[in-house]
């Protein structure tokens, strides 16, 4: 098989999970701008997600967020997804929007609050059982704002204890994905601030616990591809939350701020064997001023383009240059792949998959955007309440 044919075959197997909350009203902590046609229920979110998959062919699963996507019958929700041509993906917990969590959730100094948080995580595992989801994704806003506010080591002990209880509840084929964030909303000490802390807890928990890399959750200048390469090497990279940042955790469209960084990350994924079902590729974005479905389609396409370029790196030439100490040639090989216009290649891939070669144009012609504006009138739009 030629290099080009191999790249095509790999691209046809790619899967990018879209987040249910990206279809609702979300944005910054200061203001969320509502849009017409936004889903009012988890079922309508799935309807929109199905359109993304229909036109991209590589977005077959939808992540849920509890309690934002809580329903009475999760089996019915899973069936609705299947009828629309998609499946339910990761279950994301929420231990950051309750008044009780002002001083933390799973790391809170009060046992009753920790119990409340752990019980919520266990509920999420129950939902995994009901939906067939295999991934429980955890992000904690826990931390402190002032020196001396709480015992830093004690909070790590509480974190470990709570995670261990949830880990023991996981069934066969289920896993826990632990996300980190170096700051916000805890400004002095965040309890899971970096990949090392997440890795240490996952290592102690066992093989069902892995680390999630959110591409927006890093300090400026952080070499994210090094983190990816290291976690892959250790077998502890469970997945990504793809988005972009200019300043902090901006949750902008993936590839918007630094497409070269996304390419470098995807090269390490391909190089390290992470282009597989064991590493989940999920978007985690807030579309506050741009139209939501087109933005998600564009984001999926951005991931595809970065992946295609990574797949086209001449590994033999790169290895020879690296072994020979030819710094400029090694960099040139990588840059040749990055500078390749892969859009014609991706158009071919889509046509071979029976898709329109231009997903965004196909979506706009479909009339779905106009239809949901006309039909979704009344009721409470989905959002995160900001």
Written overview of the protein:
The protein is α/β, with parallel strands linked by helices. 46% of the residues lie in helices and 11% in strands. It contains 14 helices and ten strands. Strands 1-2-3-4-6-8-9-10 form an eight-stranded parallel β-barrel, surrounded by six helices. Strand 9, helix 8 and strand 10 form a beta-alpha-beta unit. It is globular. The protein starts with a helix and ends in an 11-residue tail after the last helix. 46% of the residues are buried. The model has no long low-confidence stretch (mean pLDDT 96).
Could you outline the blueprint of secondary structure elements for this entry?
Elements: H1 3-13, E1 16-19, H2 42-56, E2 61-65, H3 74-83, E3 87-92, H4 111-131, E4 135-138, E5 143-144, H5 152-169, E6 175-179, E7 189-190, H6 195-205, E8 209-214, H7 224-233, E9 237-242, H8 259-271, E10 280-283, H9 292-311, H10 315-323, H11 327-338, H12 343-352, H13 359-366, H14 368-375
Parallel strand pairs: 1-2, 1-10, 2-3, 3-4, 4-6, 6-8, 8-9, 9-10
Antiparallel strand pairs: 5-7
Question: Short summary of the structure?
Answer:
The protein is of the alpha/beta class. The protein is built from 14 helices and ten strands.
Radius of gyration: 21 Å
Number of strands: 10
Name the structural class: alpha/beta
Give the helix level as a range of percent: 40-55%
Q: If you average the pLDDT, what whole number results?
A: 96
Q: What general form does the structure show?
A: globular
Main-sheet strand order equals 1-2-3-4-6-8-9-10
| Major sheet size, sense and barrel closure | 8 strands, parallel, barrel
> Ranges with pLDDT <50 over ≥5 residues?
none
Q: In percent terms, what proportion of residues is strand?
A: 5-15%
Q: What pattern of helices and strands is seen along the backbone?
A: HEHEHEHEEHEEHEHEHEHHHHHH
